[in-house]
Amino acid sequence: MRDVAIIGVGMIPFGRRDQDSLIDMLAYASMKALDDAHLGDKAVDAVYVANMGGGILQHQTGIASALVDRLSLLPAAADLVENGPASGASAIKNGVQAIASGYSDVVLVAGGEKMREVTGWRATDFVATLTHPESEYPYGITLPGMAGMFTRLYMEQHGLTAEALVAVAIKNQEMGALNPYAHVEMMITKEGIFDSPHSVVNNPLVADPLRLYDACPVSDGAAAVLMCPLEMARELTEKQPVVVAGFGQATDTHTLQERDDPTDLKAVRLAAQQAFDRAKLKPSDVDVAELHDAFTVLEIAESEHVGFFGKGEGSKAALAGLTRFGGKIPINVSGGLKARGHPVGATGVAQVVEITWQLRHELPKERQVKNAKVGLTVNFGGFGNNVLAFVLRRAS
Amino acid sequence: MRDVAIIGVGMIPFGRRDQDSLIDMLAYASMKALDDAHLGDKAVDAVYVANMGGGILQHQTGIASALVDRLSLLPAAADLVENGPASGASAIKNGVQAIASGYSDVVLVAGGEKMREVTGWRATDFVATLTHPESEYPYGITLPGMAGMFTRLYMEQHGLTAEALVAVAIKNQEMGALNPYAHVEMMITKEGIFDSPHSVVNNPLVADPLRLYDACPVSDGAAAVLMCPLEMARELTEKQPVVVAGFGQATDTHTLQERDDPTDLKAVRLAAQQAFDRAKLKPSDVDVAELHDAFTVLEIAESEHVGFFGKGEGSKAALAGLTRFGGKIPINVSGGLKARGHPVGATGVAQVVEITWQLRHELPKERQVKNAKVGLTVNFGGFGNNVLAFVLRRAS
To answer: What is the tally of structural domains in chain B?
Structure first.
């Protein structure tokens, strides 16, 4: 099994990109990753596209074939990988295995989604296509609905507080304002939004107890990573290589109500544990993490399930500022899904791009975690029914 | 790099399966493959689903997560792979790499499609979503349209004859009639269909010069394979292992008109060559082949491009019966896409299932290729823009 290194990364600003097609966005992010690595004439052997909604939103299939042609990377192999909102991490995993197996040397993974073509309930409905087709979708449950019920239970059983959710929202929008790739660049304050007399209008309930500012926006966007065997990284590029030290993937029951304890995100626990075991590292080794905060509650719950904090301690940690930039374990310094945005197929790739920048020490001072050596990503599919984690390490 | 063996296969009869959901079909085929291998309590590490149209036809995503739960294989990793009509082979390739890399031991790949929910132009439109979204789809080109133009050019330049197309259609429907999994079980004769005074009605033009009996039907169906490292196969199962001796994948220009020579199926040539090179075998070593005959012309063209016959010799070979059961190189003994049917996500998996049966010598005498040791599959995505080939070998 060959070790795999990330040698190029690229992203386009997330947000509303009416002028770009899905393929445009994937191509722009890919070209940035290729340019970042500056490979010269070394060929790309395989391309993976991560995308969830090309069929539903763009009435398109065969997108990987279109991209490899657009990028003039023929005759490279090209496949699309879909795993709901964890499509990005799934595509990277398959790219890692392509290299680790010895079948491919240079692999490009591009994740993208064009979601702003639909608005309102149609966007929520699109994401809800990942719910169980027989026992969930026909009854009208959506992801915000699931997250609301999960939050209520977490509050009752694990000391989650509304204040902690507010702290996560404020922190991530504050960091998003520093990230030129973020969809939401607006800083918010407790006084301005949550305690405002207008908060019932400005921050309406989405799914009790979750409010508007607990949820990520609906975004267009794309991100890409270029990988090769670690042993080839130094000769192929001058960039500081980042090693995929370990990955993990685990599934859980498709429906939330079938879980013995619906507040136990078993797939997050297993995926993170597997990634740490393979990396021979532990949660306390992590310098910076990107967790899947499609809703503020998920950042707190995941921070407990990956092992940063004990169960019930995540809220206190968020309130105490331990997860802020400069804190003990900075989470979502990018702004997370909450502020960077969540173009679903792009998210898992964008998380790895952000951690790569952090581990290369390339970010501006105001959001570069000092001397970061180890990073963690968690990409959460379904409502925790299919989760992937990566432990990334700065190559020595 | 570990060698990979197929240790279990399963398929459900293709055709019209109104009573089954997409997940039902994937689950039935998977259970057959699991039962075939009779693994005992050995866990499945990863599940791959091959599917093209879940989003467009069923308004579903996250199908791999639903399947792994339905099969009680939690917490196995689960991803969906899409590569148009070559999704099946792409999913198997990623399963092979998961095992070869050492990250997974036992991998299940299930391919399925539920296409009969749409009929007429909607079915053709669904498949056309794989054409180029800017330079093809908006202008109304469909796959039959491309195949028609390709056929005309092949006739003009490479000695393809209408008689050879008829021979392929008759051969494949004859073999399909012997295959209990085939959608089309009707044997046809030259007199009954092609030379009949009613042929203009019974066998109407679809895309000049291709007629109805040149095209595969629109089918529902699913197929599954179970794989593990070759070194573990003998201890895990009593079944005769079949080795994935080599695979190849290559892309070509997304649009047909950009190719220097549109009759040169470069991706077929490259994918087959790569598969043979990796297997250290050559076309003349192949005892039985499953080629992607979505249209009769493709079987003939592919039989030349993979190296069975020289360019322009495929027609003669078909007319001389060399590709019939009992001939020099039997092609599509299953009935092929033409008669077994072409539920797009299932096809690449079904081809590997058929070859596995052949190499295990498990088929009834009337369609078992005697003493078959080496098989080839070609799964053709787009109009040859993304093609995969597998060389399979009976383990000694």
So the answer is: 1
